[in-house]
Amino acid sequence: MKRNERRRGRRGGLLLGALALGLVTFSGAAAGPVAAALPTRVDVFGTLKDRPAAGPGTTILLMGTDGRDTISRAEKEQFHAGGVACDCSDVMMLVHVSRDHDRISVVSLPRDSYADIPDADSARTHPAKLNAAYHEGGPALAVRTIESMTGVRIDHFLQIDFRRFMDSVDAVGGVEVCTSRQLTDSATKLDLAPGRHRLAGGPALQYVRSRHVDNAADLGRIQRQHRFLVNTLRGAGLRDALADPGRAMDLVSTVLGSDARVDQGFGPDQLLSLARDLRRVPLSRTEFGTVPIAGFNPVIEGAGSTLRWDEERAGEQFRAMREDRPLTPADSQTQPLDPPDMKVQTVVHGDTLDCD
Q1: Which domain holds residue 11?
Q2: Which PANTHER family does this chain map to (predicted)?
């Protein structure tokens, strides 16, 4: 095996760590601490009923909420992360690890997707945006809603907050991002000139939260989130951190937190073990995509405007995940759209993602 091929395999082996490190990209914010065994711990999976059948491979729901209570007032002001939280899950991702640990598929679920959210005490549902499920019933209802929409059984739930995201980025020496155009956001105050930039924790938070860069809005933000994860993989900082046993455990413990309120089904040892099992997965066998969108639904009273999934294409995507198949053919040459088109979403491989 050639030297550059070996390097590429090692990069792929860090994917799970990078996904955990970049979880706030899927949230715009996140809720409180989520890892150790406290008496008040929430059991996400124990109360779920009528779940999809278990299939080959492992599927993880990466999710954050828009809580803002884990960073200081000064940090909120410096990195423009204030505002009133609705205690919702802004953006969610399903991460499927193949049974043989030789492929990873990541599908983003836009927060404004239409959802039929199950009522707590009956078999009925009510219409709302997908991100409202967490607000109404916490992680258990979010998992139940997503499983009912996708038919994919979720094996683990992973969530981090602003504090742990910023600390984790700083722990690996920052993450380099690349843009071929000016990136300016009126809400987060992101202001990046064309070129490459190494972002520390706070500026990285601004980058992954920005959704007012262009008219692509949330879909554009999701695409930048995917790029951030890939750039984390490519960087030497994460590779060096996970290569050192002590630093690796410190980093994973930072990602998971130390005072859990939610049972994620993960501990530091398990997360590290899975990351190491994926050591030889190349970026070319990591897939990033967004659930296919057909357009907007009519305005729903109490929910507003919602995104309508393309049922046929989305069904094919989730069927592939359930059956442990790749989302795209092995010889696919798809490229990310810039800016992305709502009705022409593509799945891209990790080695094709670079500059905005």
Answers
A1: 3-352
A2: POLYISOPRENYL-TEICHOIC ACID--PEPTIDOGLYCAN TEICHOIC ACID TRANSFERASE TAGU (PTHR33392)
How does DSSP assign 255-288, residue by residue?
HH-SS-SEE-S--HHHHHHHHHHTTT--GGGEEE
- What is the model's pLDDT at position 344? 62
> From the first residue on, what is the mean pLDDT of each consecutive set of 10 residues in the chain (356 residues)?
42 53 39 33 77 93 75 90 74 89 91 90 87 89 94 86 81 91 94 95 91 86 87 80 78 64 59 66 87 92 90 94 88 66 74 82
Question: Could you tell me the two tokens for 349?
Answer: 């491989």
DSSP states of 104-124: EEEEEE-TTBEEEEEPTTSS-
Do residues 280 and 100 make contact, with C-beta atoms less than 8 angstroms apart?
A: no
Q: Which residues have C-beta within 8 Å of that of residue 5, sequence separation ≥ 6? A: 282
Give the residues across from 262 on adjacent strands: 42
Helix (H) or strand (E) holding 340: none
Structure tokens at 37: 């065994």
| Helices and strands (H and E) in the chain: how many | 11, 16
94 class by beta-carbon count within 10 Å (0-12 exposed, 13-18 middle, 19+ buried): buried
Counted domains in the chain: 1
The pTM (predicted TM-score) of the whole model is 0.84
- DSSP assignment, residue 54? P
Q: Which tokens hold the place of 105?
A: 């598929």
CA distance 310 to 314: 6
